Automatic annotation (TrEMBL):
The keyword Amino-acid biosynthesis does not apply. This is ABC transporter ATP-binding protein. Residues 16-240 form the ABC transporter domain. PROSITE patterns: ABC_TRANSPORTER_1 (PS00211), ABC_TRANSPORTER_2 (PS50893). Keywords: ATP-binding, Nucleotide-binding, Transport. SMART domains: AAA (SM00382). The lineage of its organism: Bacteria, Bacillati, Actinomycetota, Actinomycetes, Kitasatosporales. Pfam families: ABC_tran (PF00005).
Length: 314
């Protein structure tokens, strides 16, 4: 849990707490009045298909998008509270930087705008990418610009880091390096990270909490350590081309068949019949099951469900 939360009291245990949070655009709901929470000090993977509502949620947390309904609390405070902004850093997909600024001028701007600025941390990130301080942002490659944007975000020393597909244009070495940096920030400072990504293997490696969204709805949320063991991969022989009847007493999320053999991802409420071959799935297998079947019943672990809150002060 975070050792950096400063607002005191129980609420600062939760980095984000959404109550009936919704965003409606002209064409419809991007986020459909959802209720969930993310504990402080965790690395939370935000997963979902294109158009699921991930950027919308990150945008609301970064105060770039105004919610239509409900409220979002950050470390126990309403997202619009002036105390919230200095504690958050946001890295969007488009990474807006001033093209005419040099790398050094960009970091200087970060220093001037952020009272808790850590110049050494920001410079280290830039140096490790062999970026010349006098290089103009406009002359950098997409991945190099991403590195500068990361330097700005880390230099701010935020308690909450909001990352929208942060590593999509980094080469494998840079991905690995920035990923390690992220993990050491979390370990050393208790920083909370909410990170959208389509790279399931990367999420498996980095995240200890998950928020899966599809069509604006939360489909799964909670500790990976809680969520994954609630599922079993069941392999057996099909009965008349279908699933054995006995499997029907469980929640079957996804089924794959090859010849007469089936492999089903099952959410088990009671122990499974051990005449089948049973195995614990990987996080990636669980995520793929829920992504393939957004109609599967939602699963929120108790950690991800906020206590009822009467007041809705915005
Ligand atoms: N500014 C906007 N105006 C109108 N509709 C929008 C706007 N931003 C997002 N939407 C719509 O809201 C829905 C959710 O979009 P969002 O960008 O949050 O999805 P996403 O999960 O981040 O997708 P991706 O993985 O492709 O980045 C989509 O249907 C999108 O078209």
């Amino acid at each position: 849990m975070s050792g950096t939360a400063t607002s005191g009291g129980d609420d600062s245990r939760w980095a984000l707490e959404a109550h009936g949070l919704g965003k409606k655009y002209r064409r419809g709901w991007a986020l459909r009045e959802e209720t969930f929470r993310i504990p402080a000090g965790r690395v939370c993977g935000l997963v979902g298909p294109n158009g699921a509502g991930k950027s919308t949620l990150l945008g609301i947390a970064a105060r770039l998008v105004e919610p239509t309904r409900g409220q979002l609390r950050v470390f126990g405070r309403p997202v619009g509270d002036p105390s919230v902004r200095p504690r958050c850093a946001y890295l969007g997909q488009d990474k807006p930087l001033f093209k005419r600024f040099t790398v050094a001028e960009t970091l200087r701007m970060g220093q001037e705008l952020n009272p808790g600025w850590d110049q050494a941390a920001a410079e280290r990130i830039v140096r490790e990418g062999q970026l010349a301080p006098n290089a103009k942002i406009g002359t950098l490659s997409g991945g190099q610009r991403t590195r500068v944007a990361f330097a700005l975000a880390f230099g701010k020393r935020p308690d909450l880091l909001l990352l929208d597909e942060p590593m999509s244009d980094l080469d494998p070495l840079a991905r690995d390096e920035i990923g390690s940096l992220l993990m050491s920030e979390v370990a050393e400072r208790g920083t909370t990270v909410l990170m959208s990504s389509h790279m399931l293997s990367e999420l498996e490696h980095m995240c200890d909490f998950l928020l899966v969204v599809s069509d604006g709805r939360v489909r799964m949320a909670g500790d990976t350590d809680e969520l994954v063991p609630m599922h079993t991969l069941v392999t057996g022989v099909t009965a008349d081309g279908g699933l054995p009847e006995a499997l029907g007493t469980h929640t079957v999320i996804d089924v794959r068949t090859a010849g007469r053999q089936f492999t089903a991802l099952v959410r088990h409420e009671i122990p499974l019949d051990d005449t089948w071959q049973l195995a614990e799935p990987s996080l990636e297998e669980v995520l793929l099951g829920y992504l393939r079947h957004p109609e599967a019943p939602a699963l929120l672990s108790p950690t991800a469900v906020p206590a009822h809150r009467e007041e809705h002060a915005a």
